[in-house]
Design goal:
Layout: H1 3-13, H2 16-25, H3 32-43, E1 48-51, H4 58-69, E2 73-77, H5 84-88, E3 89-94, E4 99-104, E5 111-115, H6 122-134, E6 136-139, E7 142-145, E8 151-156, H7 169-172, E9 177-180, H8 186-198, H9 210-222, H10 227-241, E10 255-257, H11 261-277, H12 285-296, E11 301-302, H13 304-308, H14 313-323
Parallel strand pairs: 1-8, 1-9, 2-5, 5-8
Antiparallel strand pairs: 3-4, 6-7, 10-11
Helix pairs in contact: 3-11, 9-11, 10-11, 11-12, 12-14
């Protein structure tokens, strides 16, 4: 299939994206970047970690997306006393017939909202992250495959660190994107206030089925990525590991370790999903640059020196994007 033909096909097949965004827009005012990133995670078959202070509609956005898709949704509030069995399920003894039977946990859904994921101990986080990676759960001697699409959307509060269990870097790497949510503008907040005070929010109608999302994921895979774009993605990722090779000597002492190969994979997948959302059959450098911060910010660690100088991973990514030549 040539590019023009593929472009026409994707333009036609991606029409549901506008419908989905319109339905979500009935309830969520503003937060366009967050909604776009949720759709990228959905289409790229990757999980999303949302970081922001309370009250920024993180939970509401995820619930609304599930409603607009007629998908099964489960919210799990992570707490310090949560157990892995509370998440995946457990074996229960039946006294009548003397046998054990399996009771499945809330993980068996299309959308899992892991609310305040950093409040649960490491065992629970590991159980969730295993399900995310393997797309299966083992209870007793039986293994169960999770329904597709399966998407974990985890939230964490950056301002409260007391009583939390920060996610280890190796586990955070399992998330396709880490999205930082910001406050709405003054105009948006006025609309939010009026909508909530007057109870005027719209009713979300399902506009797409989970099966159609699975089909759309197949089309996202078909989006064309030129060799020059692939080289651009690799240059960005390798610059986080060996900045000196790219003329970024000043970053050498600021980076403890660079991004893993998952960064390259997810940059390519995310760029394809972004092109699909923009109703294009091919990736352009702007697609890569648009999602670069969300893919890389949690995959590289800054050194103590960088922390002392108040330099964040975002500052380093910006420096790399400014230096690497755009194809």
């Amino acid at each position: 299939m040539d590019i023009a033909e593929l472009n026409e096909k994707i333009k036609h097949e991606s029409a549901f994206v506008d419908l989905l965004q319109n339905e979500i827009g009935k309830v969520i005012i503003g937060q366009k970047v967050m909604i776009e990133r949720l759709l990228i995670g959905l289409l790229g078959n990757g999980h999303v970690l949302l970081e922001g202070v309370p009250g920024l509609a993180k939970t509401l956005a995820i619930k609304t997306l599930a409603s607009a898709m007629k998908a099964k949704y489960q919210r799990i509030q992570f707490t310090p006393d949560l157990l892995p069995a509370d998440l995946v399920g457990t074996m229960i003894y039946n006294q009548k017939d003397g046998n054990f039977f399996i009771r499945k946990g809330p993980i068996f859904a299309n959308f899992i909202l892991a609310d305040e994921i950093n409040r649960a101990p490491a065992k629970v986080q590991s159980a969730l992250l295993e399900a995310m990676q393997e797309r299966q759960v083992t209870i007793g001697e039986e293994t169960f495959y999770l329904d597709e699409p399966f998407l974990v959307l985890a939230t964490q509060n950056p301002i409260e660190q007391e009583g939390t269990y920060p996610l280890p870097e190796a586990q955070v790497d399992r998330f396709m994107l880490k999205v930082k949510i910001t406050y709405p503008s003054r105009e948006e907040e006025l609309k939010i206030m009026r909508q909530n005070v007057n109870k005027t929010e719209g009713i979300v109608q399902p506009v797409i089925t989970p099966q159609e999302i699975i089909k759309a994921r197949g089309l996202v895979q078909e989006v064309y990525v030129d060799e020059k774009i692939e080289k651009y993605i690799l240059d960005i990722v390798f610059a986080t590991r060996n900045p000196k090779l790219f003329g970024l000597e000043k970053l050498v002492d600021l980076i403890s370790y660079g991004a893993s190969p998952r960064a390259s994979i997810n940059l390519a997948l995310g760029a394809k999903a972004m092109a699909f959302i923009k109703r294009r059959g091919y990736v352009i450098p702007e697609d890569v640059r648009a999602i670069c911060f969300d893919v890389l910010r949690h995959r590289m660690a800054v050194s103590y020196e960088a922390e002392a100088e108040e330099i964040t991973s975002e500052n380093i990514i910006e420096e790399i994007l400014n230096k690497i030549e755009v194809p």
